[in-house]
Design goal:
The chain is built from five helices and 16 strands. The chain is of the alpha/beta class. Helix 3 links the parallel strand 8 and strand 9. Helix 2 packs parallel to helix 3. The radius of gyration is 20 Å and the shape is globular. About 40% of the residues are buried. The structure holds FE2/S2 (inorganic) cluster. The site of FE2/S2 (inorganic) cluster has 14 residues, from loops. This is Oxidoreductase. It holds the Pfam family Fer2.
Length: about 325
Amino acid sequence: MTARLIMKLRVADAVATTPEVLHLGLVHPARPELPAWTAGAHVDLRLPDGRVRQYSLCGDPADRSRYEIAIRREEAGRGGSAWAHDTLAPGAFAHVSAPRNNFPLDAGARCHLLVAGGIGVTPLLAMARALCASGAEFAFHLCARSPEEAPLLAAVRSVCGPRLSCWFGSEGRRFDPASLGPAEPGTHVYACGPQRLMDAVRAGLVARGWPVERVHSEHFEPLRDEGFAPEPFEARIASTGQVLHVPADRSLLEVLRRAGFDLPSSCELGVCGSCECGYRDGTIIHRDAVLPLAKRGNRMMPCVSRARDAVTLEL
Ligand code: FES
């Protein structure tokens, strides 16, 4: 894995898609094309103080001339969205990473059901654009309190046409996972939005017999587990046999860095996927919000995840 390219991009346009959500178009000041990406990808936006926030790309993956993101102002958030709303006007510059995709469309699926809640519409709009372009079968379920509070609604309507179902609380329509129907072979579900929506989709579908590996979701919030008490453990480096002690008050990533391992990282919160590394044995306490279940048997995020007693790392 290599470190992600960071680019200084110019804000080409900035439009309020709802009173709380700013829709930005970003271009390279000198190059006509940006690095390629696939639907579901996100970029890291670097704040002036060095912190990093992740935003899904919502534009057209086939359009290499620009990236589009949408940022909801979170007054009670960690400060990144307020900075973006106050600063990123047309002509301003933003430091943005090359895209990474932790939430891809399943290449083997025959039908895709997209469920968006609020600002979670962003990766799913890019997916809808890609599915339209490929002629794939899909349906789009959009949940919001009201049409006025649904970010990018006009774009979703234009892209999805009759495949769109809107679930607006103001109209008394609440999304029910049962509306997705039974688990037809080859059908995959992708949910992005508030945690309670994603939990309801997953629980509702699994209860109806959907295989969990066909229900995909995207999280940008770190897992909240205030009751977690970290324990020390040993990390063995497979290539050299070196054993590193990871104390309770340090992350595995910190210990690896101090030992000279140059691992990439970005969020250091378990949400971006940058620091992923392989392991060979050991019982891992996965504390990230990004690694799919299918990869947890031999991959981990050392910025937040730990081991019970010991782990052998593929380094
Ligand atoms: S640095 Fe983001 S998941 Fe580890």
